[in-house]
Amino acid sequence: MKRTKTLLLSCLITMLVGLGLFFWLLPSKQTAKPVTIEEDSDSVVFVQPKAVVNDTTKDINVIRDYYRLYLKRANGQDISIHDERRFLTQTLIDKLCYCGGTNYLPLFPLEDNRDPRWSLDNLKIRSEGGNWYSIQLYDHKLKSNCNLALRMVTDKDGQRRIGYAYQYGQASEFSDADIYKKLVKMDEHPKDEIAFLKAFIRSYLSLNLTIDLDAPAYRKYLCDKFVKAGEGVYKNKYSGNYQIDWLDSPGIDYLSDIPSFSIVPDKEGEGYFVIPEGVATYEGYYVNVGKRNGHYYIMQYGTTDPDIEPSDDIEPVTIEG
After folding, report:
1. Were 151 and a residue from 14, 16, 164, 171 both cysteine, which residue would form a disulfide, CB within 3.0 to 4.6 Å?
2. 269 lies in which domain range?
């Protein structure tokens, strides 16, 4: 009998110790949340927990450090692309580079890359919600404030970076409704040449209007597959990515508006006028479309020729939401 009681007591103690260990370990399992995957989250594949993603203090520090990088540099020295990548996504770098290289990369207006008109003491950063931040700098030359708007994203390495920016002076209203969270992928099997140009232009323009982190890779894909080498395509030395000079023109204001194009076939049916909105037909571009490996591609590009006349048929090309 005494032996039976001893066995029962031993079993009871073992059960109590086991339960104690279970409840002691349970909280650590609940708090150690793994990195999750979200399909509708700024095109970011690997996403930190929400508390990290929406950390306003960290975002403000990133923005402040970015401006400090420019405003505190010795003797106005240039900033390397490696420094830029600490604060900007490659998607944003690719977009800003179309404006003409390093002079336009800083997210505030510069007369040149050594302009001393700004001071870090006047920098004001305010969270506007939804990952948007308004930036205000005081222009000591013009004696007025410069206003910008930035959109923060979580980059592929889990770090917060600036993923989108409105041009200075265009920051009165801003929201995700005005940009693309996902790039517009191209229809790779269009019915004809005009449908191909529509699909290609729409997809390419979306690369400069998105926060999608896959945009840099897709930019290279579009240029490699659908444009003949040398026909308006070049590799930007600063960003390291491809650009198309007739779709990445400084005259196209991606930073504050959605561009629009028209496609006009010529009368001979041999090529097409590609005309930015507000530009005369002969001030646009002229392209020829061919086929290779079973798909359409742009095989020749140039400025318009006065001897080539446009037809009366106009096909507008616009970015569609």
Report:
1. 164
2. 193-318
